[in-house]
């Protein structure tokens, strides 16, 4: 009787051993789905003029989520454009030089100064002749010399002005005018960019998970307005023991199964190089004190099945190293 009873027991043990050998070829790890949260902020100051999105809305990359009031920026842009036009006109004037009419007027002033000097010189010569003959006075001669000197100075000033008008503006003056024009154009570009930035656009495809401000609020630059969770590239975070670490590889295919049995394909994208204690959300004390290695598994989520916080199980075939 004992020998007969022993045979079924041996069969059971052998079957269990075979089952264990099969299980050694499969690594199963549980974890939670995570995704990237993008906090979308405003780059400019302004009042929220339009903000129709709500939490739970699906949004796409490039979609306009909100718009800020741009009245002040547009008024400043009008001023900047006027300053640009003035700077542009000033540069043209500096580069072109003086008008032909101004040059002719300066030439006429030179001719007049020459005539005044010639008359003053003749008066001086006459006064000196009278003084030499005893008919004139020394004061008259000195007054005539003063008038001659004044006329000579006036002629030199007229000639200098004519030379200046003909030579045009100095290179330094032209460079300064060109710099003022560049500054005005840069200011215009800055204000135009601020107006563009007043339209808040979504950088990724995802779901609005938090709406942080409301329409009518005055925002300063850097204020977060909305959080969008990128559901197109979620990942499953799991932890494996040291004994399984050598049996997984980056790029390895994984089956990711939800609690209700739905499965999708995944791929190992990250393997931690250092061990850590099992996270606190593991329920039993025995599990919490173990050293484990973190894995990230990228998941195919075209249909939006996986969402942040969802529990799931990763099933992967153990990789056998070549001997």
Quick tags:
323 residues, alpha+beta, 7 helices, 13 strands, 46% helix, 28% strand, disordered N terminus
Describe this structure in words.
The protein has about 325 residues and is an alpha+beta fold. Helices cover about 45% and strands about 30% of the residues. It has seven helices and 13 strands. The protein has a six-stranded antiparallel β-barrel with strand order 1-8-12-10-9-13. A four-stranded antiparallel beta sheet has the order 5-4-2-7. α2 runs antiparallel to α5 and α3 (about 100-135) packs antiparallel against α4. The protein is rod-shaped. Mean pLDDT is about 85; it is low at about 1-20.
Question: What structural class do you assign from the helix and strand content?
Answer: alpha+beta
Silhouette: rod-shaped
Distance between the termini: 47 Å
How much of the sequence lies in strands comes to 25-35%
Strand order of the largest sheet: 1-8-12-10-9-13
Total number of beta strands:
13
Radius of gyration: 45 Å
Could you estimate the helical fraction of the residues in percent? Answer: 40-55%
Give the overall average pLDDT: 87
Main sheet summary = 6 strands, antiparallel, barrel
Summed up, the helix count is 7
Order of helices and strands: HEEEEHHHHEEEEHEEEHEE
Question: Can you tell me the residue ranges where pLDDT is under 50 for at least 5 consecutive residues?
Answer: 1-22
